[in-house]
Amino acid sequence: PTGAVVIRLVDGEPEFEIQADQAYDHIDAEELPSFTERVGRDPIFYQGTLALRSPASARAAEAARSRLARECGELAVFYDVNLRDPWWNPEMVEREMQRADHLKLNQDELTRLRPGSGEHGERARRLRGECQAEAVYLTRGEAGAVAVSARDGEAAVKPKGEVELIDPVGAGDAVASVLILGQLGGW
């Protein structure tokens, strides 16, 4: 199967049951195409945690990253942290965060990876420094989002007025898409 996920809302938060042995668990590194004709200058490699859950797909992701860097030169890595039990482990996530230029995670993921005190922006700043990332983007549900950048400092956005959160599934992917579009467009 291409991929299946059962999603339940528990206290307004999505709970994911990601099915095992899906097509994306069997990506073959040997069958990856050349990127030379497909990408422009200054490419961004988007890496999610779930793509690394099987050894075959993890090898394919590494091969794609290496080939893209070799064929296109300078390569920015955008790592979308998705902590979906049981498909992640702390060592793998830490390794990928250390290799990324841009990190996107939500406030619950930040709390799981960096428990402790301090407001979210402060903890995102510490994470950016620890990982030496160019930027950390923290989504906070109805509280908005925080971006912490080595170059541009910190910016926070939040909705104006009251927001009724109905279904947050896919919101993080939408945020990642806009962030990458902004990077490609030089926003």
Shape annotation: globular
| Helical residues, percent | 25-40%
- Which stretches are low in confidence, meaning pLDDT under 50 for 5 or more residues running? none
Please tell me the overall pLDDT: 87
In terms of DSSP E residues, the strand content is: 15-25%
Nearest-angstrom radius of gyration?
Answer: 17 Å
Q: What is the structural class?
A: alpha/beta
The main pleated sheet reads as: 6 strands, mixed
Question: What pattern of helices and strands is seen along the backbone?
Answer: EEEHEHEHHEEEH
Widest beta sheet: strand line-up: 3-4-5-6-7-8
Please report the number of helical segments.
5
Distance between the termini: 38 Å
How many beta-strand segments?
8
List key phrases describing it.
6-stranded mixed sheet, alpha/beta, single chain, 5 helices, two-stranded antiparallel sheet
Question: How are the secondary structure elements laid out?
Answer:
Layout: E1 5-10, E2 13-18, E3 44-48, H1 55-72, E4 76-80, H2 90-99, E5 102-106, H3 107-113, H4 120-131, E6 135-139, E7 145-149, E8 153-157, H5 171-185
